Amino acid sequence: MENINVTEVAGTTEVINPKEVTKSSTSKAKMLFWGILPIVLLLLLVVIIAKVGTGIQGEQAAPIEKLNFEKIKLVDEGFEVSVLNSGPEAVTVAQVIIDDSFWNADFDPSPTIDRLGRSTVFIPYPWVQGDPHQIKFITSKGLIFTGDVIAAIKTPELSGERFMKYALIGFYVGIVPIALGLLWFPFMRRFSARGIHAVLALTVGLLFFLVIDTFEEGFELAINVPGVFQGTGLVWFGALLSFLLLIAIDQANERRMKKEATGRQISYKLATGIGLHNLGEGLAIGAAFSVGEAALGTFLIIGFTLHNITEGVGIAAPLLKDRPTWKTFVYLAAIAGGPAIIGTWIGGFIFNNTLAALFFGIGAGAILQVIYVISKMIYKESLVKKYSLVSWTNFGGLTLGILLMYATAMLVKY
Question: What is the mean pLDDT of the chain?
Fold first, then answer.
């Protein structure tokens, strides 16, 4: 006779069949087994290939080695060179050549660098201020890897004074011009509904130029990223994932609040996206000063300061139907401009091409998401008010935004 358990819960009777419970447990166990089995077999195959090999005999045509010069630091005693082994096998640095002369060197931790390992090479060389120098590493297999010092200047050390100077530079480049752009808010509040649409279209134009510029700068950095880290892919992946993450956050908030994002929320998103872009601008300025290109650094400061005023106009545009307090504008200026300070610190003291390329990708994705949100806002309001989506005023605003950014960008391109 079959045993059946009867359970009474809250006035209702639930019948539990032991056979059904056993069948369900067996089904879950089978599902877990078939989920794990391919992974176990794959790992086993990898182990077999690693231990046994492919079975194809023959000598390797050429050694496969790759060294990347991550940073060349100039100190009073000589050069400190940080290198990364991004190749598939260990590399041993056998000889060091500076300006066509063989030179002694000390390695920390070792001249043999494992895959994805790093080593710092100290070379006691009397470098000459302002002169170019070339550093060559010859491996035990005869391959040569080269790093160039365009114009020798002592690498700045981290100090309180330089730290504050870099912060001041970031303040000039990021926070000040964006705050000045936000001051146009009272003037723009007087616009009609069509005028507000035109300003929003101008914002889209500004952002469209910014996202193209951000991608371009990310790809320029990606060229210098070690191949194993796939620099171009980092830019694309950072952009895609940040774009989708922000879309997912928006949709979750709209479901919870049961309403669309307000103009203030859009301005904060816009400030965040522009802030990530300004982080990259700070990287460029800090890196220019760290390698002794002070004239270029000063030129970039002036150019970015003029360039970023237009960003403040774009951040203020979604607020035209709200009544923001002065604190809102302070927060927006800090969010959009503050990262320029952080970028200047990073670029001046610990610049890294790999992370910089990723930051640019994330920034591009964030800006794309804001373009999507503002465009959706213009579209929905145009339907409600029965305006043309691509009216002459909207087209003019979009075009003006691109032209403004293009014209001011000429001050920072070289």
Answer: 80
**The two three-digit tokens of residue 231, written as one number:** 């620099």
Closest among 108, 182, 205 to 337, alpha carbons compared: 182
Nearest Cα neighbor of 279 from 380, 347, 213 is 347
Mean local confidence (pLDDT), 135-152: 88
With b meaning 16 or more CB within 10 Å and e meaning fewer, what string describes 332-349?
bbbbbbbbbbbbbbbbbb
Q: Which conformational region is residue 268 in: left (phi greater than 0), alpha (psi within -120 to 50 degrees), or beta? A: alpha
Rounded CA-CA distance 67/84 in Å is 6
Rounded CA separation 280/359 (Å): 7
Amino acid symbol at 79:
F
User: Alpha-carbon distance 335 to 35, whole Å?
Assistant: 45
- Strands in 78-85's sheet, in edge-to-edge order, are 67-75, 78-85, 118-123, 106-108
Question: Is the distance from CB of 151 to CB of 296 less than 8 angstroms?
Answer: no
Q: What's the pLDDT score for residue 122?
A: 95
Say how far apart CA 294 and CA 297 lie, in whole Å.
Answer: 5
User: Parallel, antiparallel, or unpaired for β 101-103 and 112-113?
Assistant: unpaired
- The span from the CA of 331 to the CA of 114, in Å, is 47
Q: Among 228, 117, 201, 179, which Cα is nearest to 328's? A: 179
Whether the per-residue pLDDT at 295 is higher than 60: the answer is no
Total count of residues recorded for the chain? 414
Contact 294, 264 (CB under 8 A): no
Q: Which of 206, 230, 233, 236 is nearest to 364 (CA)?
A: 236
Q: What is the pLDDT of residue 56?
A: 57
Contact (Cβ atoms closer than 8 angstroms) between residue 133 and residue 54: no
> Under a CB-based contact definition with an 8 Å cutoff, are residues 62 and 110 in contact?
no
Is pLDDT of 7 > 60? no
pLDDT tier, 145 (very low <50, low <70, confident <90, very high otherwise): very high
Q: Is this structure's pTM higher than 0.90?
A: no
DSSP classification of residue 112: E
Angle at alpha carbon of residue 84, lines to 241 and 73, rounded to 5°: 105
pLDDT, one tens digit per residue, over 326-375 is: 889 999 999 988 888 988 888 777 777 787 788 788 888 878 887 887 88
Give the Cα separation of 370 and 207 in Å (integer): 8
